[in-house]
Amino acid sequence: MKIKFIFCLLLFPLFLLAQNVQEPNDTPKEWSAPYAPFRIAGNVYYVGTYDLACYLITTSKGNILINTGLSSSAAQIKKNVGLLGFNFKDIKILLTTQAHYDHLGAMAEIKKLTGAKMMVDEKDAAVMKDGGRSDYALGNGKTTYAPITPDRLLKDGDRIQLGNTSIVMLHHPGHTKGSCSFMLHTKDEKRAYSVLIANMPSIVTEKKFSDIPAYPQIKKDYAYTLNSLKNLSFDIWLSSHASQFGLHEKHKPGDQYNPAAFFDRKGYDQVLNSLQLEFDKKTGKK
User: Fold this and answer.
1) β-strands 91-95, 117-121: how paired?
2) Is the Cβ–Cβ distance between 154 and 99 less than 8 Å?
3) Which of 42, 116, 234, 252 qualifies as a FRET site for 143, CA 20 to 30 Å off?
4) What contacts 61, CB < 8 A, 6 or more positions away?
5) CB crowding 134-152: b at 16 or more within 10 Å, else e
6) Three-state secondary structure of the chain
7) Which long-range contacts does 210-217 make (Cβ < 8 Å, 24+ apart)?
8) How far apart are CA 278 and CA 91, in angstroms?
9) Strands 159-162, 236-239: pairing kind
10) Is the CB of residue 127 less than 8 Å from the CB of residue 139?
11) Is the pLDDT of residue 5 over 70?
């Protein structure tokens, strides 16, 4: 009885954090608007909302879900997975491109519903465990999503293996301390594809980088990430937000399966060039 009481006391602070989640009120309506799920290429599917990109990677041993959108999106993601003909409870691994509420909002609930293992870039583990409270830009001591305890910490270049699919995590910090991208290879009846799910390093704070003591290496991290992304090779690129990779120009609900619509190196380079200019302006570089 005493051991059970102590265990409950240890869980009580986490219960309080979960009960006091405060997602910002000014979130764009596109972040929660529904969007019809579809097959992007091979075993890579889109199951997110109109703008918050969530990806289902199917394998011979169960499935992988990357990102979950807002806290209200769990039911929508579950529905989308079902519409594609897959079992929601076959999700075995959960991943995220960044530890912000717009990508982790429903993660704790989905983890509970599926029993899947949560894997995260080690630099985002602490902020994920406190529900975003310690985030250098969006935290301000407020819990913006239900806290999640990771089952595995990932480092740059680590592989996530499930069945016949191997995903490489790329550490791309700046937007958060543990922002990351994912690379994988897939194929269909016609050909193979290399797929990049890129975490584009948009600048999330209006403060000068020098005025962020909680993240002293932020400038260095952004510079590293921009350079790393510019040197990647791929066939298809996707991102954390549909608007970042022009989803709605490349695909309309009801369109036929067409991986080639996402062959877009030019668009990728344009986004990175825009982010580089934003970074240069922020750091006073001419």
Assistant:
1) parallel
2) no
3) 116
4) 92, 162, 163, 164
5) bbbbbbeebbbbbbbebee
6) CHHHHHHHHHHHHHHHHHHCCCCCCCCCHHHCCCCCCEEEECCEEECCCCCECCEEEEEECEEEEECCCCHHHHHHHHHHHHHCCCCHHHEEEEECCCCCHHHHCCHHHHHHHHCCEEEEEHHHHHHHHCCCCCCCCCCCCCCCCCCCCCCEEECCCCEEEECCEEEEEEECCCCCCCCEEEEEEEECCCCEEEEEEECCCCCCCCCCHHHCCCCCCHHHHHHHHHHHHHCCCCCEEEECEHHHHCHHHHCCCCCCCCHHHHCCHHHHHHHHHHHHHHHHHHHCCC
7) 212/136, 212/137, 214/134, 214/136, 215/136, 215/177
8) 37
9) unpaired
10) yes
11) no
d(CA 264, CA 244): 12
Q: What digits encode the pLDDT tens for the residues 11-59? A: 434 443 445 888 877 889 999 999 999 999 999 999 999 999 999 999 9
Q: Where are the domains of the chain?
A: 30-283
Residue with tokens 């791929």: 234
Q: What is the CA radius of gyration of the chain?
A: 19
Task: Please provide the average confidence, as pLDDT, over all residues in the chain.
Answer: 93
Q: Which fold has domain 30-283?
A: Metallo-beta-lactamase; Chain A (3.60.15)
